[in-house]
Amino acid sequence: xxxxxxxxxxxxxxxxxxxxxMGNPGKVLNFFDVAGTWDPSLAFVMGGALLVTAIGYxxxxxxxxxxxxxxxxxxxxxxxxMKLIGGSAVFGIGWGLxxxxxxxxxxxxxxxxxGPLLTLAAIAAGIVAARWAMSLSRRGTTVKA
Length: 145
What we know:
By secondary structure, the protein is mostly helical. The protein has helices at residues 2-20, 25-32, 41-60, 82-98, 102-108, 114-139. The protein has one domain (2-139).
């Protein structure tokens, strides 16, 4: 049941991404181009997502436990560290350069364009590089540029 519900939620999310235009890198890049061909429509998509999320959290946390799990799994870490700040910066830069957010990238992988595949390859390379750098820092080794 958990796998089936995950598939259903992912399918609804992917269809929503495509209908909203967030899978179209040109539309996303126009949203970021406030001094040029700015397209504010994605602000309404994001605002709608925030509204649904806020309502969802209010309803879900009234429950004793999740429907498909024994307990809620919430993050316990509260402080901002360099991994979070750096990761957020890299995410934003990548999104601004390519027009593909990771959530919007997955639904468009199947349409056969090279842009989404190259973006996915860059994300995978970034993950590997970050893990390598973190393993070096744990060992006390510094990365030389």
